[in-house]
Write a structure and sequence with these properties.
Number of strands: 13
Helix content: 10-25%
Distance between the termini: 90 Å
Number of domains: 1
Largest sheet: 13 strands, antiparallel
CATH architecture: Sandwich
Shape: globular
Order of helices and strands: HHEEEEEEEEEEEEE
CATH class: Mainly Beta
Number of helices: 2
CATH superfamily: Lipopolysaccharide (LPS) transport protein A like domain
Length: 187
């Protein structure tokens, strides 16, 4: 065998292996969840955390999975359940959603996909997107919603409200008040 023969043979085999690999199928690609998990600083399973104000429990956040990002101070939550409490610590409502982004510094929760809020007094809200802003003490949605209570039924294309639905602004409202028969016209 000539000098350099084994090296040339090795180079030829390596080239053949690279060429064969280039023609092969792409194989399994990582899912979005794997990408999120790879870039998250922490991944928590069956996560729960209590948010307090002045020593009083204000909410309990539970998620099947939480991707925690230290730099932007946010948590990407999956299959979430948030229980809200009044200033005396008494439960007022429960929010469930498939996904949500919780901004740790501001206390803002951006819930998405199958968002349902049920209050202890029988009010029920459904939408695809809901934002709870702790700083302004507001909830809002920029998508269509359905609201039901023992006395009312209403829909609209968006809304802004306080968490108790006492100061409510609705875009394109439609609805009725049970018993009294008042109908809100569509704009």
């Amino acid at each position: 065998m000539r000098s350099g023969g084994p090296i040339r043979l090795f180079a030829w085999l390596l080239g053949l292996a690279v060429a064969a690999g280039a023609c092969a199928e792409q194989g399994i690609r990582p899912t979005t969840a794997a990408t999120l998990a790879d870039s998250a600083d922490q991944v928590l399973f069956k996560m729960s955390t209590t948010v307090t104000a002045d020593g009083v429990r204000r909410s309990l956040v539970v998620a099947e999975t939480a991707y925690v990002y230290q730099g932007p101070q946010k948590m990407d939550l999956r299959q979430i359940r948030v229980t809200f409490f009044d200033p005396q610590g008494k439960q007022t409502s429960v929010l469930t959603a498939r996904t949500g982004i919780y901004q740790i510094i501001t206390g803002t929760l951006d819930a998405r996909k199958n968002v349902v809020v049920v209050s202890t007094d029988g009010r029920h809200l459904e939408t695809e997107h809901l934002i709870y802003d702790k700083t302004s003490n507001q909830i809002r949605s920029d998508t269509a919603f359905v609201f039901d209570s023992p006395q009312q039924h209403g829909t609209g294309s968006s809304f802004v409200s306080d968490p108790d639905f006492k100061n409510l602004t609705v875009d394109k409202p439609k609805g009725r008040q049970r018993g009294a028969g008042i109908l809100l016209p569509e704009r």
